[in-house]
Amino acid sequence: MSQKNTRRCPFERIQNPDLEAEQIAETTDLTVKLLDKRYPPPKQILRGVHPKSHGCVKATFTINPDLGPEYQVGLFAEPGKQFDAVIRFSNAAALVGPDTTETKIDPKTKQEVPVEEHGSRGMAIKVLDVGGEVLIDDNGAHNQDFLMINQPMFAFANTEDYLRLDRILLQDNDMADRFFLPVFVPDPSVTDEQKQRIATSLNIVKEDIQKTDVGNPLGVQYFSAAPFLFGLDRVMKFSAKPYNEELPPKHSPPKPRPDNYLRDALTETMNRNEPLQFDFMLQIRDGSDDFGENNELIENASTKWDDDFVSVAKITIPAPQPEVDSEENKAHCEQLAFTPWHSLVEHKPIGSINRLRKSVYQASAGHRLERKDPFVQLLEKLFKPLFG
Ligand code: HEM
After folding, report:
1. How close is the Cα of 254 to the center of ligand 1, in Å?
2. Residue 387 pLDDT
3. Do residues 101 and 115 touch, judged by C-beta distance below 8 A?
4. Which of 357, 358, 362, 367 maximizes ligand 1 atoms within 8 Å of its Cβ, making it the mutation to test the pocket?
5. What distance in angstroms lies between residue 361's CA and the mean position of ligand 1's atoms?
6. pLDDT score, position 388
7. Tens digit of pLDDT for each residue in 86-141?
8. Cα–chain-centroid distance for residue 319?
């Protein structure tokens, strides 16, 4: 994997670069420590976040034939151009569990109580062989990855907050509750500014994530949440939205829901004969726009841009794809590595959370792909004498 050094962009404002570099290094280190704790040998190591997949599908990514010249930048330079793509749908949760939590232990009574807590859902698109100059290549290939969640804001604002979260996850066996405690109990180690951000995080988790019931991963809108360059002098956020609101079926199953009902819904939809389409859309801003007093519309990923979305491409998922639930497809899906830094230089990831993601995704993918599935290991062992 080769990497390009790139200059700082005029849209970013890093308050304390040395401190941020230390925070990124510690978070990267914690990512590996968390994986080692979750998956002791001989367990297969899964992704650091989004380990549960609902399925990977084949798709095409076509730039709108009538795209205006002002949008013909980077991947979108050639109207009508079609690329092959793969898409992985996932749950964001750090651990593999039921798609929706329906019971919990009440900390006071220690009794099991009914709840309904949904999680954040992910859509990761890998647009293949895009040519051009990339920031990090994908095993030698020039691919453009677009990673999205089904909320327009990310629950954690910046590197400082994400590091605090990771420290708590490691100490508390993947329980995040203590992260939100400063909202309720005074904590002298947390500044007022930080406390305000934590309150926003709690609100996003409780209101935007846990209350959003997704019946089918193919039927909802996804967002980048974080910003990216759009050429040298503009910035973008991106989103993928189902083109036909009627398709696919969005019903949620009756309760109690099967643990993997999102995989079931995706598989069922991919066994039908109707192809699906998503509109790929951008919000675009330039240097004359107001990014807030502390540049928070770039540096704080929990903020939302209110600008209208412009459609720039169509994603088509051909159907049927009955192989989507096969063991072979699942194994292939596990081997893929998505990162926002698999990107053309024109769409460089920007802002604190995106700077953090560069080394964290590399550490997670590097670590999990080092220790392969025991079945794959066995095959390699058996066939090694044949291949030397
Ligand atoms: C705007 C914010 C973010 C979005 C939209 C986002 C979205 C996603 C998605 C969709 C995936 C699944 C990719 C796949 O299917 O393989 C993913 C994976 C991952 N994310 Fe994020 N994410 C965000 C922020 C972060 C942050 C701040 C961190 C940690 C610093 C992080 C760490 C990871 C890791 C470790 C993986 C798995 C990488 C691998 O092993 O291949 N993400 N993310």
Report:
1. 30
2. 39
3. yes
4. 357
5. 7
6. 34
7. 999 999 999 999 999 999 998 889 999 999 999 999 999 999 999 999 999 999 99
8. 24
Residue nearest to atom 19 of ligand 1 (CA): 49
Reported for 75-84, long-range contacts at CB under 8 A and 24+ positions apart, including other chains, are 75/127, 75/130, 75/132, 75/144, 75/344, 75/346, 75/347, 76/312, 76/313, 83/127, 83/128, 83/129, 83/130, 84/58, 84/59, 84/60, 84/127, 84/128, 84/129
Angstrom distances, CA of residue 102 to CA of 36, 50, 265:
28, 20, 19
Cα 281 to the center of its chain, rounded Å? 17
Q: How many CB atoms lie within 10 A of CB 348?
A: 23
Q: Whose CA is nearest to atom 28 of ligand 1?
A: 357
Q: What is the pLDDT of residues 25-67, one digit of tens each?
A: 999 999 999 999 999 999 999 999 999 999 999 999 999 999 9
CA-90 nearest atom, ligand 1:
15
Positions of the chain with pLDDT under 50: 5, 387-388
- Nearest CA owner, ligand 1 atom 37: 47
Decide if 148 contacts 244 (C-beta within 8 A). no
Is there an atom of ligand 1 within 6 Å of 302 CB?
Answer: no
Whole-number pLDDT of residue 3: 58
Collapsing DSSP states into helix, strand and coil, what is residue 183?
A: helix
In the numeric block, the tokens 């309720």 are attached to: 184
Determine the atom of ligand 1 nearest the C-alpha atom of 368. Answer: 40
The protein residue with its alpha carbon nearest to ligand 1, atom 33, reads 49
Q: Domain residues of the chain, as ranges?
A: 17-387
CATH superfamily, domain 17-387, is: Catalase core domain (2.40.180.10)
Testing ligand 1's pocket by substitution, the residue of 46, 87, 352, 361 carrying the most ligand atoms inside 8 A of its CB is: 361
